[in-house]
Structures are given as structure tokens and as C-alpha cells.
Design a protein that fits this description.
The protein is built from 5 helices and 3 strands, in the order αβαααββα. By secondary structure, it is mainly alpha-helical.
Length: about 160
Amino acid sequence: MIVAVLPLVMMAQARIGIVNSQQLFDLMPEKAAAEAQLKTLSDRYHAEYELLQAEFDKKYADYQSVAADAAMPATIKERRVQELQEGDKKMREFERRAADDIAAQRELLTKPIVDKVQAAIRQAGEQGALDLVLDTAVTPVAYYGPNTIDLMPVVKAKLGLE
């Protein structure tokens, strides 16, 4: 019976704090700069993709005129189909590589911000001598009682957000 009750007694004495890391991240001034850099990069990729699309559309229009010509040799038609397939493959590969690059840049730009927020949360937890800090952005909390410590004001102050 003691083994069953001991965890309950220990939980009653535990000091628990809550924080929302996503809210903190969204408030960070560095986030706007990171988003601006990502938008610039995304816009450049989008412009390049539009050029590839225009090139593909022109080849497709050329193919349609060749395909409609019954006197056109089959070898030429096949070459045009092959060009279209290569163009489609080229566009898909470009799209994949662009998405990978944007994701890598997002990670590179946001990691320092996330690290800064996490460090402030850790410091606030240590400063408050807390046993546990729940991040409500990651783990939904259905209920927390009046003894739970809201770390948001402390962490905001540590980050210079208030």
C-alpha cells in the first residue's frame, strides 16, 4: 500500500510550472527577421519555378502543333514527348530541391530562436526551483490547479518581451 501511495504523496509536493513555448517563439523579434529571409528565398524559388513552367508550357504548345500534324514523322513526335517528360522531371526535381533548401534554411534561422526560448524556460524553472515545467504548446493540459506556477511572465521578462 505504501508503494501505491508514495507516488501520490510525491506528486502533491511537486512544484509544477506551465509555459507555452509557441507563444514565446511568436513574440520573439528575431522571428520576423527570419520570416522575411524565408519569404525572400521562397519568392526567388517561385520566380525561377515560373520560368521553368513557362518553358514547359511553350514546349507543350509546340508539341500539340506537332502532334496534330499527321505528316510529321513519328520520330520527331517521340522526341517532343521525351522533351516534355524531361521538362516535367526537371520541374519536379527543382521543386523538391527548393522545398528541401527552404526547410534547411527555416531550421537554420529558427533554431537559435528556439534555443533562446528553451534556455529562458530552463532558467525560469531552475530559478523557481520547479520539479517539472509543462509546455502547453507541445502537451495539451486539460486542467491545472491553482498551485501550478505560470512561468510565462517570468520567461517573457528573461527574453526582454515585457
